[in-house]
Amino acid sequence: MFASALLTVCLAAFVSAAPQSFKRAGQTIYSCTQPNTAAITFDDGPYDYINDIVNTFNSKNAKATFFFIHCIYDSDSQDRVKYAYNNGHQIASHTWSHANLATLSRDQLHDEMWRVEQAFQRIVGVTPAYMRPPYGSFNDQVLAVASERGQDVVIWDLDSRDSMGASAEESKQTYTDKINEHPSSILALNHEVYSSTAYDVIPNAIDQLQAAGYKLVTLAECLGTNPYQSVGQPESVCPLLL
After folding, report:
1. Helix, strand, or coil here: 34?
2. Parts of the chain with a pLDDT under 70
3. Would you name the residues annotated as active-site residues?
């Protein structure tokens, strides 16, 4: 009886929310479209360093975008998601289990994306409009499912290579080399799970980009679009629905 009542309350909370919705069209994004912007993005969080990363961006009047994966229902991870979101940074999906999406079935793809959507709706009340496929791996089926779910697929045009073992100095040089090409905009990939990225590379990259005249913005801002499909109130994290 108690379980049934709790489930009813949880479902009622889910359907009673009236979020503001934005229509989306699926596409694949490799670069920003707004001139003189740079979007620094992070994969694989929320991790231990995220609050410090957020504070670094805040102190430099800059914005970041975080692509989150699973394990975001424990209290520490929820707090990290909220901290990034409440400080005006963008959150987006990196799918649930960090699988190679090109190897999954249609149903598995929907599940990977739906689980992150559900978590975001419960924790901060938003539905993500952007998804980055793990390893940058996707195929036509991934694109079709992402489009059905209203999510654009995001890649990058600058890879700091931190996940491939690049040293902090090498990653900083990657930023320098890209800036010296004088592109109209930059969409950078980093991973928030590395302390060298959080405390060495990123402060330097922000300073380099701002000195070169780039405005550090969220992914959505660098594209001139909405960051979320819908924005509403956070829902209760109901144990029976996890």
Report:
1. coil
2. 1-26, 71, 236-242
3. 43, 191
